[in-house]
Amino acid sequence: MTVGDIYRAQHARSLADREGFWLEQADAIDWYRRPDRALDDSRAPFYRWFPGGELNTCHNALDRHVDAGHGDRLALIYDSPVTGTQRRYTYREFRDATAELAGAIAALGVDKGDRVIIYMPMIPEAAMAMLACARLGAIHSVVFGGFAAKELVSRIDDCAPKLVLAASCGVEPARIVEYKPLLDQAIDMARHKPAHCLVLQRPQCKATMVDGRDLDWATFVAGKPPAACVPVAATDPLYILYTSGTTGQPKGVVRDNGGYCVALHWSMKNLYGVAPGEVWWTASDVGWVVGHSYIVYGPLIYGATSILYEGKPVGTPDAGAFWRVIAEHKAVALFTAPTAFRAIKREDPDGKLLKKHDLSRFRTLFLAGERGDPPTIEWAQRLLKVPVVDHWWQTETGWVICGNFVGLELMPVKPGSTSVPAPGWDLQVLDAEGHAVKPGEIGAIVGKLPMPPGTFPTLWNADDRYRQAYLAEYPGYYKTGDAGFIDADGYVSVMTRVDDVINVAGHRLSTGQMEEVLASHDAVAECAVIGVADELKGQVPLGFLVLKAGVEQPDSEIVAEVVRMVRDRIGPVAFFKTAVVVARLPKTRSGKILRGTMQRIADSQDYKAPATIDDPAVLNEISVALKPAGYARK
Ligand code: COA
Ligand code: AMP
Fold first, then answer.
1. Residue 498 located in a structural domain
2. How confident is the model over 144-166, as a mean pLDDT?
3. Which numbered atom of ligand 1 lies nearest the CA of 170?
4. Any idea what the CATH number is for the domain that residue 90 is in?
5. What's the mean pLDDT when you consider all of the chain?
6. Does residue 147 share a domain with residue 48?
7. d(CA 250, CA 151)
8. Is the N or C terminus of the chain more exposed, i.e. has fewer CB atoms within 10 Å?
9. C-alpha of residue 361 to centroid of ligand 2, in Å
C-alpha cells in the first residue's frame, strides 16, 4: 500500500459503482423510507439523489442523537467576544428549543414547502431558525448581515417567503448593525410582502415593531407546543442560498435534503477526520454556504459539537482570539478562510500570542473560500505544526470539490493546491475549444455530470438559468467558473475565476453587479469594475468611470457618491472603496472591455496588448490614471 491508495480506491469506486458507494453512505442517515436507488437520471441533466427516500434533516441533526442516548452531549457552543457572552447547549436542550421555535413558526401558518427568510447574525437562534424550518419541511433562505436592503429585496421577491425570522441587530467590532430598519426598508420596496416577521430583540439594540406584522420572538415563542419532524422527500429542497451571479439578480442555489445529509455525514468523518462528540469549529458565518454546511448541518448531523463564533480573527480582542477559542473549547479542528490567517499573521507575525494557549488537542487546519496562497499556508504550517489543508468548494456544490481526505489518510500537502477530487467528482481541465489540456496546463475546470450528492440540483424557479449558466457551455459537464490545472499526481490547483466573480476576504461578489450600480449614477457614461490584488483580503474591487460629456461635478465628488451607492445597494461587505475617472476604457474592436488586461496593469504585472485591441494607447492612459491611487507601479 502506498499513501493515497485508500483515497484512490474510494474515489474510483464512487465513479465506477455509484449506486453501491452512495447507498452504502446513505446507511449513516435515519430514513423514514429508504431510497429506492442512489441516483435518478431520468430527467438528465437535472439529476436527483436518493429518489423515493423520505427523511427529516432536523431529526438527523438533533433528535436522533438524543434518541440514541447522547442528549447530554454538547451540540453547540456559542462564543461571542463582541458581546462578552458564552452559551452552551446540549443536544437535548437544542432539540427542545428548536422544536418549540418550530411550533411557533407552524403557528404562523408556515407549512412544508413554504419559504422563510432568515436575516440574523451569528447567534444560536440563527442555527435554531434554520433547523426549525427543516423540522417543518419549510425551505429557509439565510441572508448575510453585511448585505444592504436591496439585496434582501431581490431575495424576498425571488423566493416569496411567508415569514421572516430576524434579529434586531448584528454586532460588528466597531458598530452595531441595526437589521430591522434594513428589513423594513426591504419589505417596503419588495413586491412580495411576507405575512409576518418574528424578531429577536437583542440587548444591544431594540427594534421598532410594525403592528400586525411583527412579533416579538421571546414572548411569541415561549411555551409553544413543540413541533414534530415532518417527513420530506430526499429530493425536496432544504434551503435556498443566494450567491453572486453575473448580474444584479443573485442566483438561488437550491439544496436538497437527502443528498446533502449523506454527503455532509461522509465528509465529517472522511474529509475532516472528526469523531462524534469532538469539538469542531468553523469560523465563518451562517450567511455563507460554509456556515450552512459546517457550522450547522454537517457537525450536528454527525453528532459532533459545533462552535458558533461571533467575532473576528483580529481585534476581538486581538490576534490571539482564534487560539483562545480553540484552547478554551478543546477544538480538534478549525475551518476558516485564508484571509483570516493573513489578518492574524499581519498583527502577530511571530505567533507570540499562540504561546499563551494550549492547543494540544488541535489536529488540523482547513482553509477554503478563496485561493490558499502558499506563503499563508506555509506560515500556518510552521506556526501550528499540524496539517494545513486547503480545499475547494462553492455555494453551488455545498461541500468540497477537492480536498485532502484526512479522515481516510493524509496525502502529501502541496501548498497552492487544493489536493484531489472528492468522491463523485470526475474533473477535467479544458481549453477554449473544449479539449482536455495536458497535465499542468491551465484551463477551465469542469466536472462530468452527474455531480455527487449534496450539490445543487437546480436554481430556485430558474431551471433555464441553471442550464444556461452551468451546463450549456460544455455539454455533459458542470462549468465550475474556476480556472486552474491538474498536475501529474492528480492534484488540482484553482487559480482564478473565469467570469466576473471576485473574492474579497473570502466573500464572493460580482463585479457585474457593482457595475450596474456605478452605471446608474447620472454622471457616468460607462464603467468597469475589476478585482485587484490585496495583501489582506486577496482581492478588492476597483472601479473605472468614464463620465458623460459636459459633466461639471468634480471627479472626487462623483467617486465618493458611487462608493456610497455601492455600500447602500450591495452592502459594506462589497468593500468598494476606490474608483478612478478615465477618459475611455480599453476595448476590443468588437467593443468588449479588456478587464483582464486592466487587472494586470493595476496589479503591476507584465501585460501585452491583445491583438484584438481597438486602440493600444488607452492602456497607457489607464496606467497613468491608476498611479495616484497606488496601483500600476510598473
Ligand atoms: N454584518 C454586517 N456587516 C458586516 C458583516 C456582518 N455579518 N460582516 C462584515 N460586515 C461589514 C464590516 O463591518 C465592514 O464594514 P465597514 O466597511 O463599515 O468597516 C465590511 O463589512 C467589510 O467587512 P470584512 O470583510 O469583515 O472586513 P474587515 O476589514 O472588517 O475584516 C477580516 C477583515 C479578514 C478580519 C475579515 O474579512 C474576516 O474575518 N474574513 C473571513 C471571512 C470568512 O470567514 N469567509 C467565509 C468563507 S469560509
Ligand atoms: P462561494 O460560493 O462563496 O463559496 O465561493 C466559491 C468560489 O470561491 C470558488 O468558485 C472559487 O473561485 C473560490 N474558492 C473557494 N475555495 C477555494 C480554494 N480552496 N482555492 C481557490 N479558490 C477557492
1. no
2. 96
3. 1
4. 3.40.50.12780
5. 96
6. yes
7. 8
8. N
9. 28
